[in-house]
Amino acid sequence: MHTDNERAIEAGIVTDLSGRMTYGSYLALDQLLTAQHPVSDPEHHDEMLFIIQHQTTELWLKQLLHELSSARSLLAADDLRDALKRIARIKRIQDVMTQQWSVLATLTPTEYAQFRGALGNSSGFQSVQYRAVEFALGNKNERMLSVFRDHPANLALLTAEWEKPTLYDEFLRYASRRGLPVPTAILDRDVRQPYRENPELVPAIRAIYQDPRTHWDLYEACEDLVDLEDNFQFWRFRHLKTVSRTIGMKVGTGGSSGVGFLQRALDLTFFPELYTVRTEIGG
């Protein structure tokens, strides 16, 4: 039977788009798809991939901040169920961000070397949204604010995040309101400081894990937070390995030690007591 391999446009599909909101206008595609500006001269084929990879990551970081902000507000309002829905979405976004490194890993050292010099001192170290996500999760560092002192909007964004309770702060405050013995020192801590492990919190976390039937929603929340941290560490590790296979042990474009700098980030943790408690369970 002969077919012309052509799908007809259904009669009900709107084709007169004059004066209407369209797919392109709603998504601002005129701006989005013209925001890639390679700087290599002559333009290197692979620089477009490099730009789009990082722009896409920034879009996902924006969504992560959106979800983290909502999750914290929901916890503050004692709505754990919807907060966990936000965290579930965050975990899916993290999966996508981690898988993206496999695309950039197709960039060989020879190819990257042909346009790396044109990047100047631009570096992922300067990503304000990445720093804001780290701040939201507990890795706060006041010195990072000075990196953005010449960009008022970025400085305002990161300063606001620096001054907010972290996701873990809000979870522990919620757990305290539920009757868990969270130390006062944690509840009253200066949230502008990086979160540091408090051994006095471990018994409260252990109580959740030793009686999950009684504390099922808190138990689930603890495991979701561990998932989130594990995912973040996977992302960091894939970043490190992608950089390693692309530039080896070279100094980063932003002046960091490169792979060594990224390696040290793997020692950072967001929710330390959720890992410490595992040593005590069943012991």
Question: Can you summarize this structure?
Answer:
By secondary structure, this protein is mostly helical. The chain has helices at 23-26, 29-32, 47-76, 80-104, 109-116, 128-137, 152-163, 167-177, 184-187, 202-210, 216-247, 259-265, 272-280.
**Tally of extended strands?**
0
**How would you sum up the major sheet?**
none
Give the ordered list of helices and strands: HHHHHHHHHHHHH
Q: What gross morphology would you assign?
A: globular
Through-space gap between termini: 72 Å
Which structural class do you get from the secondary structure elements?
mainly alpha
Helix content: 55-70%
Give start-end ranges of low-pLDDT stretches.
Answer: none
Strand content: under 5%
Provide a descriptive summary of the structure in words.
This protein is mainly α. It has helices at residues 23-26, 29-32, 47-76, 80-104, 109-116, 128-137, 152-163, 167-177, 184-187, 202-210, 216-247, 259-265, 272-280. Helix 3 (47-76) runs parallel beside helix 6 (128-137), helix 6 packs parallel to helix 7 and helix 10 (202-210) crosses helix 13. The longest helix is centred in the last third of the chain and has 32 residues, at 216-247.
